[in-house]
Amino acid sequence: MKNTPGLKPKPCNQGKPDKDNKSRKYPSPCNKANSNNRHGCNPLAKGRGCNPIAKRPGCQQQPDPINTYCWTDWFDRDDPTATGDWEILSDLHSENVGKICKPPLKIEVQTTSGLNVSETGDVIAVADTTTGFICKNSDQKQGKCQDYRVRFMCPNAFCSHKVCWTNWFNRDRPSGIGDWELLDNLRKENPGEICEIPLFIDAVTVDGKDPASSTGQSIFILSPTKGFVCRNRDQTGCKCRDYQVRFGCPCRSNGD
């Protein structure tokens, strides 16, 4: 814009409201310190609205999934030779004590050869973090499911938490009313060998090391804070098998 003869150009406003621009909330854009900032905010100035690194209210940085979550090993407990492939989460928990978090955050399924489920064309009955995975042979056009394996996503704290297992304990035989491997009794008979608050319990048969959950017997108690009890009266046509137990405890540091 050309200057009118006889009139001096208006000097640049140095950070104060312009008399001819009283309606402006912020200094005139001719202020060089403000010319490149929204609303004329000077990043060097202190005061409300002038923090160039202020975060938007309610905005939180999302954690990096790689550092927040982790995956378990792959599990393949069943083959599709009978009614299908049943990778039931409760069975996997019982057979792999302390290796799967409760509850898992996500499930991933693939064939034992590494194919994704979508590549197989199989009809999948269930695939979730509550039940686990089920593929029924009766649902397939070819009459049989592929052989699948599963793994689960868990909080990173679960995977990084180290568990140390005690020795196996077998204080009772099922010759009386059953097999009673109670934690209180085991502590008294094995002082200092079991932590104060066990995290996990593992129970298997003495003869074949079969997990208690896979024997088909009715288990009365299976708890890391109580122990194990199998009562003969709860079984059909037989007595309890002979079981042994061990406990998963937080690993002690070198200084403990």
Automatic annotation (TrEMBL):
What InterPro entries does this protein's entry cite? CILP1/CILP2, WxxW_domain
Location of the protein in the cell: Secreted
Q: Which residues form the WxxW domain?
A: 71-154, 165-249
Q: Does the keyword Disulfide bond apply?
A: no
The ranges of region (Disordered) come to 1-38
Q: Could you tell me the superkingdom of the organism this chain comes from? A: Eukaryota
Return the GO cellular component terms, semicolon-separated.
extracellular region
- Keywords tagged on the record: Glycoprotein, Secreted, Signal
PANTHER family annotated for this entry?
A: CARTILAGE INTERMEDIATE LAYER PROTEIN 1, CARTILAGE INTERMEDIATE LAYER PROTEIN CLIP
Q: Which protein are we looking at?
A: WxxW domain-containing protein
